[in-house]
């Protein structure tokens, strides 16, 4: 488990990370989402132990990360522009990472390289941006470090590649408890990969929730009440996050699971009632509107 407790980091007068506390549990894919400049890279760098927090503590499986080899071996960090030695090939990078990560799996590495159609002998500086990201991911996965920190690594990967990496993640999670942490500025890049999402905004955490919980605990309802009395009864006792009324048609976003919501409306006289599924975008918009943010413009554009 990665535990970030009350962590802050400033660069002169820029407070990049402001009192952040987040727990990243094992066996989940954690998505760290936020706008450009929200502090994602800074958080990941501190978790990787390459940058020191000004305040607060970060531990990986109970071990403090900064300046601690034991913790660093558990973490592989892929920067937003993956770094490779000048003029190197994948073979040379494999040799380097094999010395750093003692359990580096060379067999898997070369098998995946072949499956992904990446040439192990070609200079990496002739690779496309997406190919460099794939290579960085393969190095990270094959390092067999428990935590794989990916900074914008999935943004821009084509769907086939995403699917390929997703299935490798699933396999490695199952077989050895790989725990990927993926930072992105775009929710759409994360929604099919992550189990848990932490939303960073202006250096602070706006929310951190399991996607399944989020999906199960917010419903969208459309209804037309029979009369004023049923309208009053229908609206009472609901935890309404958002309410719109067009003519007599209500569109409500409410907290609670589907069964609770349907059961509430079964006691009310309605002319029309429908419980609709919400997309992840709608859920995020509702969750962040509640805390006073218009996230639409920020992470969905
Ligand atoms: N080395 C640095 N020196 C000065 N300021 C920095 C440094 N690194 C980050 N910052 C500042 O800290 C803030 C957070 O930056 P960070 O790179 O962590 O954000 P981010 O969420 O990863 O953004 P992006 O999505 O654009 O990569 C920004 O205001 C940035 O300008």
Automatic annotation (TrEMBL):
<dbReference type="Pfam" id="PF00005">
    <property type="entry name" value="ABC_tran"/>
</dbReference>
<dbReference type="InterPro" id="IPR051782">
    <property type="entry name" value="ABC_Transporter_VariousFunc"/>
</dbReference>
<feature type="domain" description="ABC transporter">
    <location>
        <begin position="2"/>
        <end position="227"/>
    </location>
</feature>
<dbReference type="InterPro" id="IPR003593">
    <property type="entry name" value="AAA+_ATPase"/>
</dbReference>
<dbReference type="InterPro" id="IPR027417">
    <property type="entry name" value="P-loop_NTPase"/>
</dbReference>
<keyword id="KW-0547">Nucleotide-binding</keyword>
<keyword id="KW-0067">ATP-binding</keyword>
<keyword id="KW-0813">Transport</keyword>
<dbReference type="GO" id="GO:0016887">
    <property type="term" value="F:ATP hydrolysis activity"/>
</dbReference>
<protein>
    <submittedName>
        <fullName>ABC-2 type transport system ATP-binding protein</fullName>
    </submittedName>
</protein>
<dbReference type="GO" id="GO:0005524">
    <property type="term" value="F:ATP binding"/>
</dbReference>
<dbReference type="InterPro" id="IPR003439">
    <property type="entry name" value="ABC_transporter-like_ATP-bd"/>
</dbReference>
């Amino acid at each position: 488990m990665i535990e970030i407790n009350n962590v802050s980091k400033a660069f002169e007068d820029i407070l990049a990370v402001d009192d952040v506390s987040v727990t990243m549990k094992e066996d989940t894919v954690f998505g760290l989402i936020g706008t450009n400049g929200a502090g994602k890279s800074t958080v990941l760098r501190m978790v990787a132990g390459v940058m020191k927090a000004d305040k607060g503590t970060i531990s990986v499986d109970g071990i403090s990360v900064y300046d601690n080899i034991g913790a660093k071996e558990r973490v592989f960090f892929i920067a937003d522009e993956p770094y490779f030695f000048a003029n190197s090939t994948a073979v040379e990078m494999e040799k380097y990472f094999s010395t750093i990560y003692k359990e580096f799996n060379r067999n898997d590495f070369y098998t995946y390289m072949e499956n992904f159609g990446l040439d192990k002998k070609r200079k990496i500086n002739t690779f496309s941006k997406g190919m460099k990201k794939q290579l960085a991911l393969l190095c990270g996965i094959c390092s067999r470090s428990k935590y794989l920190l990916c900074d914008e690594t999935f943004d821009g990967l084509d769907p086939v590649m995403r699917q390929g990496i997703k299935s490798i993640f699933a396999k490695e999670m199952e077989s050895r408890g790989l725990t990927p942490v993926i930072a992105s500025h775009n929710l759409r890049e994360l929604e099919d990969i992550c189990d848990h999402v932490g939303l960073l905004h202006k250096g602070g955490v706006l929310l951190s929730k399991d996607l399944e919980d989020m999906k199960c605990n917010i419903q969208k309802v459309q209804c037309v009440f029979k009369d004023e009395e049923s309208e009053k009864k229908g609206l009472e006792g609901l935890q309404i996050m958002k309410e719109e009324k067009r003519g007599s048609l209500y569109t409500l976003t409410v907290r609670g699971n589907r069964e609770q919501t349907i059961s509430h409306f079964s006691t009310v006289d309605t002319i029309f009632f429908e419980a609709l599924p919400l997309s992840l975008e709608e859920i995020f918009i509702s969750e962040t509107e509640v805390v006073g943010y218009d996230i639409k413009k920020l992470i969905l554009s």
